[in-house]
Amino acid sequence: MNGSADGLAASVAARSGGLPVEGLDVCEVTDTVFYLSDYGFGDRGLGLDRETWGRAWDVVDRLTGHCVREEEWESAAKLVLAQYCLGMDPLRTPSGVAGVRMLARAQSPLGAIPGKSVAWRGPATAAAGEYFRWACQAMLVTALSMLIVTAGWTGGLLPAGGAGGAGAESAGCAEGAR
What we know:
The protein is mostly helical. Helices cover about 50% and strands about 0% of the residues. The chain has helices at about 5-10, 10-15, 25-35, 50-70, 75-85, 95-105, 130-150.
């Protein structure tokens, strides 16, 4: 194992396989994956053995589905990017597709993601500066995630043959897993 593999193997993403994801810290899971994969521009498999990678993927996949069900927009955007960083194509996994579709539905007519989640959205009556403070981080995370994940795609965001009809309830599949 290399240093990256040792780091992820010791992380919550690899240690939590099979455990409930509801109490996990999304940032702890995603930040480890982002750092070790250089946001997907480095080794997207992270040099992990199949078993360790499978546990990490399982946690990211199930946590993505959980955040989609809870309509946690910012967390779902981070997890979609984490799927990519683990070597998966989130536009072809049920949980990734559900996350991208949820983010598309959450956008305001001008394209803003109105806050971290349904529960923590900017008030419709907020002045522009106040609304920006509510929405800024979620918009930036979503934009970064979509730019990286969709690099190289042409045409529509969800291509024919993708996991198009999948919803959050089917976000347990590790399609294309190593």
